[in-house]
Every structure is written in C-alpha cells, then in structure tokens.
Amino acid sequence: MKKILLLWLLISLWSVDVRATEIADTVTPSGECRLSLRSSLVGASSAVIINAAVTEVLKNNIKERRPDGSDSHSFPSRHASYAFAFGSVAAHELCFYSPLWVSASHTLANAVAMQRVYASRHYPGDVLAGAALGLASAELGYCLSKWIFPSDRCRADFGPVEESRALTTSTAALVTFCDHSRGVAVGSGIESAAAFIFPLSGCWSVGSSLRLRSHPVYLDGAYVGGLNGAAVSADGYFYRTFGRWQGEAAMSLGLLYNFECPAKSSARWSPVFELSAGMFRGVARHLSIGPRAGVDITKRPSALCALTVSIVAKAEF
Description:
- With 317 residues, this protein is of the alpha+beta class.
- The chain has two domains: 2-14 and 31-148, Vanadium-containing Chloroperoxidase, domain 1 (Up-down Bundle); 166-316, Porin.
- The chain contains six helices and eleven strands.
- The strands form two sheets. Strands 3-5-6-7-8-9-10-11 form an eight-stranded antiparallel beta barrel. Strands 1-2 form a two-stranded antiparallel ribbon.
- A hairpin with an 8-residue loop joins strand 8 and strand 9.
- The radius of gyration is 21 Å and the shape is flat.
C-alpha cells in the first residue's frame, strides 16, 4: 500500500510541473475539448489506485464462500471491479472521440461480470458490487483530479441530453425469492444487456434490447447447473432531465429463449416483461452512469418474478 501511495504522489507532483503549454485543454479531431494531460493522468491513476485498495481490503476481510466452494473470498468480484474501473477510465478518456468507445469499454466489462457468474466463481451480488465499486472508484478518481486542478473545467458541465440516440450497456442482478430445498428451483441470477434507444417527441423514446442471463438451478437443495438464455425485447422510455441528472421510467416486453435448461427447469421459450426506473448522472461527454431497479416477470421454476438491480452506462450520440 505504501508503494502505491508513493507512486500516486510522484505522478501528482510530476503533473503539477507540466509546462503551461501542456496544461491547456486540448481539442479532439471532432472539435470537442477534453482535459489536459495532467488531469487525465492523475484522474486515471487515482481511479486505479482507489479501486485496487478498496477491492483488496474488502476481498481480504469479508468471508463469503464461492459458489464452487473453492474458497471464502467471493465478495466482491475482483475481476468485475477491475474490469469496470478500467472500462470507466477508458470511457472517460476516449468518449470525446466517439461514443462507441464508451459502449465498447463497458460491454467488455459486462462480459467479464457475466463470465464470473457463468463459471460459478461468484454470485450475482458479488459482481454487481464489483461493478459499482469499479465505477465509483473511477468517478472518485476524476473528482479528485478536478479538485487538485480546479482550472481544468472542460468536463464539468456535461450532462445527459434529452431527445438523443443512445446505446446502453448494463449488468443486473435478478433476485428471486423461492425455496430451494424441495423440487426444482432457481436462485438469484445475472443479466448482461445492451439496448439501442431512439428518441420520439418530447421526453419519450423507444428502443430494442438484447439480454443474456444466467440463473443457478437447484434440485432438492443441490446445485445442478445453470438456466442460461437470451432475450430480445421492445422497450419504451420516459425521461426527465434535471441538470446533470436524468430520471427514467421504462417498460420492456420480449421473448426469452433458454438454451440450457438443466433438470427440465423451464420451457425453451417464454415471454418476458419488465418495469423499471433509474437515475443517471452525466459524468463526461456522451457518458452517463447510474442505477436502475425494477421487476422482471417471466417463467422460472418456483419463481414467476424477480427483482432487478442494475448498473447502467449510457453512451449518447
């Protein structure tokens, strides 16, 4: 830890001595301004150091057994935490060139989170906590950079934009409440989703989303495999923007295909319906992040509905 803090201090001191010609905000090929080199360097390094420090403290002090029973260091997911921290740093630094960088960085982080649950290394809550920790660390790092260099205000005024096209990526925990001790039942699962959003008039938008999800399946209390599937849905959104904040109410209706159904746990095809609400904050050009919560209704063994808690990144075009 001392070495990490010393490295951060040296980077900060070096950044302060950068010549004035390098301090000024730069301009991207598209004509948009971005933070100076010193602010970016301190923000990124602070994000990584904060994330590593907090993740390791929690990892080594909270004892939760992994789903595969290998050890008692399941919470939080280190892979998810690091992936979302680096993904958010990449989004901050590259969002000025194209919103696609925002989507790509968070899509990769979502893939890491999904893999950790699919491989029975973590519970959904572990990766959701890791995702939140990674995003929070990145934002804290960049806030620290702005506090150290108050003259670099280029990103400070960016916020969500109404009536804009968007691509969102999200990682969600699907929390079910059912008895696993008798018959076939599913546990809390995870969902990774990407949605395209197109504005209509006023505060209304429509879109379409692709969802990948996985639930652990239990037979008389014993784990027998994963209920894994993919869904396509049509979505409707209502937005209200308040400065750098944007509230959202959404409704989704789609069709779910389960390509793995251990112990005859579910039908191959089933409709899926979701109601949700979220709150997002603009943190950089084209980039907003925030939580979303709702209820998901579809056919599951011993559970008709599930509560959903999501971490969402929105790239605006």
